[in-house]
Write a structure and sequence with these properties.
Length: about 180
Amino acid sequence: MASTALIVTDMLNSYDHEDAEPLQDDVARIIDPLSKLIRRVTDPTGDQDVLLVYVNDNHGDFSANRDDMVAAALDGKRPDLVEPVVPSPDCAFLPKVRHSAFYGTSLEYLLQRSGVERVILTGQVTEQCVLYTALDAYVRHFEIQVPEDAVAGIDRELARAALRMMEKNMHADIVTAGSCLA
């Protein structure tokens, strides 16, 4: 049983939507630290006992599964931002339909069943999906870590404000990707 879960939110993105340009610019900033963090968690020779969970918006396609979402993202405008973080077939993958990774998904059940006490929130969008997921994690009494170099936003100012809100209101530990599992 893992006491920590790394949650990767909405990184399978085709970037063909409103606000895609500023978002993809910020995702380019985080892709290296995030992919390194994922590799640390999945390294079979490492000593990390961390549950890796991908939660991704299905963009209204309720028939889409993991493979469909990966293919759509890789066929999108920025496959270079998707390829480094494509989920392996053996990690948990939950489709979502709204902002929070908890809303309408089995995430809470999965985390409780796995003995998780702390969640590390990564992905996009800091001022939307990551923020709402942090709030839902907080009200469910999970400890929260957010590596600021592994979350991307559309609006830098709002993203910074969201990180401050998570830190002050939800007692999130704002860290770097390199230090969050230390």
